[in-house]
Structures are given as structure tokens and as C-alpha cells.
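TASK: fixed-backbone design
INPUT:
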């Protein structure tokens, strides 16, 4: 650092009208060369660097604007999709509720129809049982009557002789005759 300071001091004490010589101090000459090069670069490169930075700035700003527009469009599409989703969910709930009420109605109708069919079947069964009971009772009556008649005929045939037989016939004729007179 001391050498750098001495170089500046040396430049300050350099005679203005003197000889042109070769400066052998490397640090002093490099520093001068670097300041000249950096000065030239700043003077001439400032415009190029400014243009490059302005172009980069414009590209970044246009990218940000495009991103904002895409974001707004995406948000609008998202809101539309949410509204459509809510509408579809409401319709689905409505269909579900209508479907449940329709199912309940059909279930009630089926239960009613089944109970009516069961009542009719029960009534038909009871009527069939009644008729079968009546038929069985009639068959039993007929058999009892036939057996009673056969037993009575057998008893009569075994007990009756011809005289008793004629007497019974006369008595029946008398009963029939008295019935005619009452008419």
C-alpha cells in the first residue's frame, strides 16, 4: 500500500516539462492503465450497458404483464369452474333428493300393492277353505245319510213282514190324503 501511495506522490511531483521516460514502477503504471481502461469502458460502455439493462428490464416487465394476464384469466376460469361445480352439485343434490323421494314413493306403492295382493290371497284362501269345508261336510252328510238310509232299510226289511208293511203303507196314504183335504 505504501508503494501505491508513493506512486501518487511521485505523479504529483512529476515535472510538467521534462523528459519523457519509462516508468518502471509496475503498480503505479498498472493502476494508471486500469483507471484509463475503466474510464474508457464506463464512458463508452455506459450506453451499451444501459441499453442491455433497459432491454432486460422491458423483457422482465412484459413477462410480468403476461404472467399477470394469464393469472387473471386463470382466476376467471377457476371462478367459472367453481360456479359450474356448484351448479352441478345443486343439480346432483336435486336429482338425488328426487331419486330418493321417487324410490320412497315406489317403495310405498309396492308395499301397498303387496299388502292388497296378500289380502286378496288371504281372502281367496279363506273362501277356498270355506268351500272345501262345505264340500267335505256335504260329502260327510251324504255318506251319513246313505248309511242311515241303508241301515233303516236294512232294519225295516228285517223287521217288516207283509202285514206290517201294508199297515205302514195305509198310514202313509192316510197322511197324504189328509194333506190333500187341507189344501
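OUTPUT:
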Amino acid at each position: 500500500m505504501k508503494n501505491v501511495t508513493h506512486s501518487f506522490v511521485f505523479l504529483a511531483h512529476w515535472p510538467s516539462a521534462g523528459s519523457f521516460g519509462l516508468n518502471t514502477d509496475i503498480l503505479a503504471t498498472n493502476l494508471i492503465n486500469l483507471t484509463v481502461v475503466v474510464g474508457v469502458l464506463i464512458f463508452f460502455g455506459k450506453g451499451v450497458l444501459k441499453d442491455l439493462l433497459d432491454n432486460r428490464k422491458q423483457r422482465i416487465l412484459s413477462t410480468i404483464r403476461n404472467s399477470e394476464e394469464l393469472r387473471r384469466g386463470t382466476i376467471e376460469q377457476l371462478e367459472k369452474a367453481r360456479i359450474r361445480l356448484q351448479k352441478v352439485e345443486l343439480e346432483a343434490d336435486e336429482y338425488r333428493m328426487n331419486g330418493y323421494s321417487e324410490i320412497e314413493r315406489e317403495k310405498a306403492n309396492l308395499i301397498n300393492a303387496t299388502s292388497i295382493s296378500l289380502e286378496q290371497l288371504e281372502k281367496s284362501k279363506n273362501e277356498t277353505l270355506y268351500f272345501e269345508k262345505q264340500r267335505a261336510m256335504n260329502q260327510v252328510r251324504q255318506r251319513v245319510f246313505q248309511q242311515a238310509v241303508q241301515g233303516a232299510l236294512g232294519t225295516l226289511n228285517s223287521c217288516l213282514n207283509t202285514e206290517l208293511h201294508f199297515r205302514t203303507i195305509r198310514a202313509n196314504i192316510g197322511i197324504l190324503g189328509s194333506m190333500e183335504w187341507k189344501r
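COMMENT: The chain has one domain: 25-176.
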